[in-house]
Structures are given as C-alpha cells and as structure tokens.
Design a protein that fits this description.
Its EC number is 2.7.8.-. One of its GO terms (cellular component) is plasma membrane. GO terms for molecular function: magnesium ion binding; phosphotransferase activity, for other substituted phosphate groups. It holds the Pfam family CDP-OH_P_transf. The chain is 78% helix and 0% strand. It is mainly α. It has one domain: Up-down Bundle (Four Helix Bundle (Hemerythrin (Met), subunit A)). The longest helix is centred in the last third of the chain and has 31 residues. It is flat and about 50 Å long.
C-alpha cells in the first residue's frame, strides 16, 4: 500500500532542500548539527507555542523544523553517507521531538477538558513509537521494514493540519486528526509486523516450526 505522502512528493522536497544542504556543507555545518537544531526548533514550537494554545504558530514552527529530517539526510548523502552515530542521533532526536509534539497536544487538550482528545494524543504517541521500534528491531535482526501507510512525515503532517484548523476556529479538527492518526499508526504497526513475519518465514530453515 502506498504511503500517504507519496514518494514523488518526497523526491520533490529533496530537490528543494538540496541547494540549502550544499550551502550549509560549504559553510562547515554538519548533518548532526542540523539534526540537533531541528529538534530544538520542534521543542520550541511544541512546548513554547502549542502547549500554550498558540496552535497555528506551533504547528507552523514544528512543520518547518521537522523538515530538517530531509535536510540532514540530504547533507549526509552529499558528504559521503550517514555515520553510525549520525543515524543513531537522528533516530533518537526524532523520538524526543515526537514526544514533545504529542505531549504538548495532550497537555493543551487537558486544559480544555477534552479528555477524548487527550486519549487520542496518548495513543498516537504510543503507536508512533511502536511504528519506529518495529522497523528498528527488524533492521537489527537483518531484515527490512520500509513499509507502512503512515511514517513520521505523514504523522506530523496530519497532526499539524489538525492543529492549524483548530487554531483558526474549526474546533473539532485536532481531535479528529488525532483519532485518524491513531488509526493509521496502529494500522502501520500491523503492516510492518506482517511484513517482518513474512520475511522471517522465508528466512527460516526448512523443518523448523
């Protein structure tokens, strides 16, 4: 099944960020520095704005800095490929940023007495972590797991659109977006587990159960 944010769109975004990546590399900026800066920006948007109810500003700031995922990856490719530590740092910072985003959303919804929305945000946080964990664990066991309808970019886009719509007066939009995101995230976990199961069956020596 195709990803929500199609490969062609990702390729188009990569072409946009390539000139920026080249300029940063020429200036001596490392991909790891961009990774950390992007995470700090997401934290500012989520905790400094989103958690205080400034949903439009928060969503725009988070979206802007979340795009550093494409930027640092492009920089790493241009400079000869990602290092082991760079890959580890990128994955770790993604988890920090995601926790801040959904934690901030859950906090703000709690201040509005929207406990259904809080529950949805917590499900999104847990399911999103599982989406990433299943892939990392599969790859650690020597298998691939590049499948799923909703990866990190899709998840942030969905919650960002919901936040912006709620911020401009469409009150139920954020809660609807969160429950939609919870559903597609859980579905993605299932997709990835099924994909890994099929690979494991193929790799299993004959005669073993």
């Amino acid at each position: 099944m195709a990803k929500i944010f199609q490969v062609s769109a990702r390729a188009g975004m990569t072409r946009v960020v390539e000139p920026i990546a080249r300029a940063l590399l020429r200036a001596g900026v490392t991909p790891n520095a961009v990774t950390v800066a992007g995470t700090v920006g997401v934290l500012v948007g989520a905790l400094g704005f989103g958690a205080r109810g400034h949903l439009v500003a928060g969503a725009l700031i988070v979206t802007l800095f979340a795009l550093t995922d494409l930027l640092d990856g492009t920089m790493a490719r241009m400079s000869g490929g990602s290092t082991r530590f760079g890959a580890f740092l990128d994955s770790s910072m993604d988890r920090v940023a995601d926790s801040a985003v959904f934690g901030a959303v859950a906090y703000w919804l709690a201040t509005q007495d929207n406990y259904s929305g809080v529950a949805a945000a917590l499900v999104c946080l847990a399911a999103g972590s599982l989406v990433s964990y299943v892939k990392a664990r599969a790859e650690g066991l020597g298998m691939t797991c590049n499948v799923g309808i909703a990866e990190r970019t899709e998840r942030l886009l969905i919650v960002g659109v919901g936040g912006i719509l709620t911020g401009v007066g469409v009150d139920p939009a954020l809660e609807i977006a969160l429950w939609l995101l919870a559903a597609v995230s859980i579905f993605t976990v299932g997709q990835r587990m099924a994909h890994v199961y099929r690979q494991a069956q193929q790799l299993q020596p004959d005669g073993q159960a």
